[in-house]
Amino acid sequence: MFSLAQYAFPLLLASSSLSAPAGSSSASISGTSVSIASSPGQTAGFASDNANNLEWSVDASGVHQPIRGTLGATIIAQTNNPIVQQNPDIVAPPATDVGTVGQAKWPMSLSHNRLQTGGWARQQNTAVLPIAVDLAGVDMRLEAGSIRELHWHDTDEWAFVLKGSTQVTAITPTGENFIATVKAGDLWYFPAGFPHSLQATADDPDGSEFLLVFDNGAFSEDNTFLLTNWLSQIPKDVLADNFGVAESAFNSIPGTQLYIFPGVPPPDDQQNPVSPQGTSNTSFTFALSEMDATVVPGGTVKIVDSTVFSAAQNVAAALVTVEPGAMRELHWHPTQDEWSYFIEGQARVTLFASGENSRTFDFQAGDVGYVPATFGHYVKNVGNSTLTYLEIFKTNIFQDVSLSQWLALIPPNLVQAHLGISTETISHFSKTKQIVVAPNPNNSP
In terms of domain of life, where is this protein from (predicted)? Predict the structure, then answer.
């Protein structure tokens, strides 16, 4: 009868007559010597030392070509050079990019803009960025006094005011009302089904612009539950019966949605209606601009989740600043995708999607980025001014895992066995999260 052992054992004995290669150690198995590589490089080969800097700055003029070192060739047919200029790592990717990773960047400037009297809105969802399945975003602009009409959603709404100030109103299902003014750098949050409105104040003569984030990647502004839509689709006798007035009271209601429309800016001394049920005990706004930032070498971070903003039960966020040459440290998020919005500056981001799959993207102000859960990544400031961006997650608690902290908190010999680096190198790994790391003086550009 065939036995694998009768063939394997003689082969093992034969191997004992071969000397171990230089640089390897020898171990004994039942009196037989076998060769074991002493460093990971001998098993897998060493990682490349090739320079993988940006091939050009996004501010550089001229016609850029898909060439990196000896690789690539010039474009001899058509090209859209402004797009090429803004995406050096897509056109001339670093050699460390391998395999396949889906498109993880969407410029809001490419989104269809819905123009209204008094403002506009443009959105990003899975229709334009299929990888972004958990979250979607809307950039909305209201002139002073203009109103985003009374409405509600089937998703939660998280918002960050980019410029100006916005008055928000809402009621809870128990009839408590809430009215507040939210200024630049601050947040609001409305759970799914909570009716609300948004109106630009005149605190800034330009009105306001804000970023809305929804906890469903397929969300569309076109599917909002709007007051005018609903009432125009209800027989007037039903409206009369519901409100206890004559049908004629509704002769002037709009026949279709208003969505965004001009209005009179709310006065500073506005008298708000008093609810018999009282005002909401939960604040649906948060003064992020007044929150103390955690200052670290190379930048700052403000983390806001349900532990400090109790209304935000399904969206957590971090507002991060990174100084030129510094970077958001190598990390990943254990269970939740990251939806990013770049407010100012220039960034380079590489996603590691497991196995032999990685891809590098370039971001500028107004761009949306997306990092699926567990994907390793960093965010480096490659510009000459401060990089400011938002990390947003569909969760109530912010979480990340730091690569440096992980490797610093396990036995050093285990790290050495994997990476073949010295204990002196490991001693530099931080046992606490760095969040942002300052430019490395040991690493020249």
Answer: Eukaryota
pTM of the entire predicted model: 0.89
* Catalytic residue from among 55, 338, 391, 424: 391
Q: In sequence order, which residues have a C-beta less than 8 Å from that of residue 125 and are 6 or more positions away? A: 132, 136, 137, 217, 218, 219, 220
- Say how far apart CA 88 and CA 55 lie, in whole Å: 6
- Hey, how many other C-beta atoms are within 10 angstroms of the C-beta on 257? 17
* DSSP one-letter code for 279: B
In terms of Cβ atoms closer than 10 Å to its own Cβ (0-12, 13-18, 19+), residue 423 is: exposed
CA distance linking residue 221 with residue 225, whole number of Å: 9
CA-angle at 397, arms to 432 and 309, nearest 5°: 110
Distance CA 136, CA 216 (A): 6
* 3-class DSSP assignment, residue 61: coil
d(CA 225, CA 149): 10
CA–CA separation, 358 and 360 (whole Å)? 7
How far the first Cα of the chain sits from its last, in Å, is: 65
Largest pairwise CA distance in the chain: 104
User: In this structure, are residues 184 and 286 in contact, taking their beta carbons and an 8 Å threshold?
Assistant: no
Please confirm, yes or no, whether 323 is among the known catalytic residues: no
H or E stretch at 6: helix 4-15
Per-residue pLDDT of the chain (445 residues; tens, 9 = 90+): 434 333 333 333 333 333 333 344 444 433 433 333 455 555 667 777 776 889 998 888 888 999 999 999 999 999 999 999 999 999 999 999 999 999 999 999 999 999 999 999 999 999 999 999 999 999 999 999 999 999 999 999 999 999 999 999 999 999 999 999 999 999 999 999 999 999 999 999 999 999 999 999 999 999 999 999 999 999 999 999 999 999 999 999 999 999 999 999 999 888 889 999 999 999 999 999 999 999 999 999 999 999 999 999 999 999 999 999 999 999 999 999 999 999 999 999 999 999 999 999 999 999 999 999 999 999 999 999 999 999 999 999 999 999 999 999 999 999 999 999 999 999 999 999 999 999 998 875 5
Helices assigned H by DSSP within 373-426: 403-408, 412-419, 423-426
For residue 404, how many other CB atoms are within 10 A of its CB?
A: 18
Ordered domains of the chain (ranges, CATH): 110-286 (2.60.120.10)
Tokens of 440: 């490395």
* Torsion sign across C-alpha atoms 35, 39, 42, 44: positive
CA distances in angstroms from 217 to 138, 275, 440, 443, listed in the order given: 11, 35, 37, 39
3-class state of residue 372 by DSSP: coil
